[in-house]
Amino acid sequence: MTDRTTPPSGEDSLIARYFKPLATDPGAFNLDDDAAMLKGQGGDIVVTTDAIVEGVHFLPDDPPDTVARKALRVNLSDLAAKGAAPAGFVLTLALRSPDDAWLAPFACALGEDATLFQCPLLGGDTVATPGPLMISITAFGRVPSGRVVRRRGAGVGDRVVVSGTIGDAALGLELLKAGPAAAGLAGDAAAREMLIGRYRIPQPRTALALAVRDYASAAMDVSDGLAGDLAKLCAASGVSAAVDAARIPLSAAARALMDRGVAGIDSIVSGGDDYEILCAIPENRLEAFEHAAALAGVAVRSIGTIIAGSAVPSFIDAQGREIAFKRLSYSHF
Amino acid sequence: MTDRTTPPSGEDSLIARYFKPLATDPGAFNLDDDAAMLKGQGGDIVVTTDAIVEGVHFLPDDPPDTVARKALRVNLSDLAAKGAAPAGFVLTLALRSPDDAWLAPFACALGEDATLFQCPLLGGDTVATPGPLMISITAFGRVPSGRVVRRRGAGVGDRVVVSGTIGDAALGLELLKAGPAAAGLAGDAAAREMLIGRYRIPQPRTALALAVRDYASAAMDVSDGLAGDLAKLCAASGVSAAVDAARIPLSAAARALMDRGVAGIDSIVSGGDDYEILCAIPENRLEAFEHAAALAGVAVRSIGTIIAGSAVPSFIDAQGREIAFKRLSYSHF
């Protein structure tokens, strides 16, 4: 026998260099097996998958650390909306070529977020593509048996509640594209930075997951725009809703842009990328939900009511008139 | 209230048309939720993820039904090698544009395979890309608690066993690319078709999963080439191996090509895409394993022995000489 050792392929050495350090969970098998393992713990496993494509979901010059965080966080947002605690994720990375200057900060930020949200890397696949960079993550969460929170389940009379503020990410994207909002905030660097940060680095409401599980009759995350996503929740629940548009929580920057007439309610409610939680809370549990949210440090606000019917939810302005939207939400095709 | 109904987006109608009919498992939530669910059943969940990219893992003119089957089956092959029974999968589809002529046969074949292998579609994500078509599947399997079969665990003296035949897929790809093998089989349409079929439609050894779980000390699937994959299994187990090259199971077509000198042992053992099971079986369990494999209808053959050491496994020819390979396995980068 000669004393050769296995020459690592480019793919293997890429995984060894950047991703093995992240795979500290025993179920990851140190990334040197064909598969990973989620230990059975008695409850159910919630599974969510979201892919992001360069030039579609993020911009080619977005910093790689923000791309990593966004790829993971959009999935964590789904888990939170289902009332699930993060359990781990697998990563598919389609790359044109292994570029250390991009991969190093990408992997470092991914590892930081995996630790921050207690959602370890379990496995993945790295493939070559002649096309744009693509990151697909499938994330897993745990809920006690039978306790996953669905989109269906909202009842007439329930309050419509959202977390955080709505519309910031869409305005942040507009700033990056030098749209009308850019001129409106030319003199306000802090507001610009906040809105762009909201686009690039979503804040998954993991801390709210337990309260959602305990109090919500239905929930989802707002990823394609509040109006369209509420329509989906209502359709799944067989109900409609009336939203008091003036109660939609806005950041100071978004409000300033609306006041100056450079941002409209349309872009606020249909822009997407909010990654806030939208849920229906029965009236008699609202106070307890708000209390739990306050303890978790997540702002929530009741913005409307679930009503009977199959109509698309209506958004009512301060004068009591229904607002007509050009489009409800973002669609890829 | 006006009596509007939600206008489905292109993305939603694509999902409704092609994928909702496949999502019959209750855990899929009819694909109208943010996530899917794997019911807890006491055991562990094995997770595997594999992506295939047009122009890299499949050819642009490969029939869409074969692309669907390959995308799912490469994952089913991993589950089988880990001793896991299929439990479901999620699909990420990155498309340039929704093309009915492509999507209809793709979805139909995917549904057929999901039924055939009892691995239901649970959820997914459909995104637009300006680049090549890409399909990423994350599949789940169930094993009793603590019973997943690892790459590590092979012991000195164990037999090295493979299922099926090796090298056919690599020769099939060569035929499609009109390589040397094409001339060698110009007159034999049946052999051509068989080899191309082995490239396009892997046969995951799901039927062998239980026998692997019961008898193998270590296992993996052969996806990147027998030589390189055996090296990985040995490295994970801290052992080496000696393979009797003449015992590597070959199809009649592959043997004919070797006999005519148009296919070499190199392309047989390093070509990849075999999706056969490679495992180590302790000597005293070999007979029981072979019996279980026969009952499952899967051909298996012992081709070598696990030996001590850290050297790359050696392949010995009929004259007792070690064969030197140019490369061990396929690598993307």
What do you see in this structure?
Two copies of one chain form a homodimer. The first copy, chain A, is of the alpha+beta class and 333 residues long. Chain A is built from eleven helices and eleven strands. Chain A has a six-stranded mixed β-sheet, with helices on both faces. In chain A, strands 2-5-3-4 form a four-stranded mixed β-sheet. In chain A, helix 2 runs parallel beside helix 3. The longest helix of chain A has 18 residues. Chain A is globular and about 65 Å long. The N terminus of chain A is likely disordered. At the A-B interface, helix 1, strand 1, strand 2, helix 2 and strand 3 of A face helix 1, strand 1, strand 2, helix 2 and strand 3 of B. Strand 2 of chain A pairs antiparallel with strand 1 of chain B, so a sheet runs across the interface.
Shape of chain A: globular
| CA distance, first residue to last residue of chain A | 58 Å
Q: Please work out how many helical segments of chain A DSSP would assign.
A: 11
Instruction: Give the spatial strand order of the biggest sheet of chain A.
Output: 7-9-6-10-8-11
List keywords for this structure.
homodimer, 333 residues, alpha+beta, four-stranded mixed β-sheet, 11 helices, disordered N terminus
Task: Record the SSE blueprint.
The structure is a homodimer of 333-residue chains.
Chain A: H1 10-19, E1 36-38, E2 44-53, H2 64-81, E3 85-95, H3 100-116, E4 121-128, E5 134-143, E6 159-163, H4 168-176, H5 180-184, H6 189-200, H7 209-215, E7 218-222, H8 226-237, E8 240-244, H9 252-259, H10 265-270, E9 276-281, H11 286-296, E10 300-307, E11 314-316
Parallel strand pairs in A: 3-4, 8-11
Antiparallel strand pairs in A: 2-5, 3-5, 6-9, 6-10, 7-9, 8-10
